[in-house]
Design goal:
With 120 residues, the chain is α+β, with helices and mostly antiparallel strands. 18% of the residues lie in helices and 44% in strands.
Length: 120
């Protein structure tokens, strides 16, 4: 979640987190500058966040074996619902490759990919 918060904050987007796990981890709320000051746009985007070492590249695609229940919660949403994206943190298999720490620094390395479910 810290990854999502950091990127969203840098882009000027508010983030709220879901209280219960019903297939949505949080919602992005874009912010815009108006003559009255900053305000949320009213256009939201929900997300499901996953992190895994079990992924591979196949041409231009990322292959990830998502649990059927989690996939169905995304795929079977009402087409008129707020859009939902999957944010997949693709971690190297060896933890030492993506996580290093000492008294001076914490280093995290990964690739993030998104998948959207809407067809508008």
């Amino acid at each position: 979640m810290a990854y999502v918060d950091a990127i969203a904050g840098r882009l000027g987007i508010n983030v709220t987190r879901a209280l219960h796990d019903y297939g949505v981890d949080g919602t992005f709320h874009p912010v815009k500058e108006t003559i009255a000051g900053r305000t949320e746009t009213g256009f939201t985007l929900q997300y499901q966040l996953k992190a895994t070492v079990n992924w591979e590249v196949d041409g231009a695609s990322i292959v990830y074996d998502m649990e059927a229940a989690a996939f169905n919660k995304m795929a079977l949403r009402d087409p008129a619902a707020v859009p939902l994206v999957l944010i997949l943190l693709c971690l190297p298999a060896l933890e030492i490759s993506w996580l290093r720490q000492n008294e001076r620094a914490l280093l995290l390395r990964w690739r993030a990919r998104t998948f959207h479910t809407w067809s508008r």
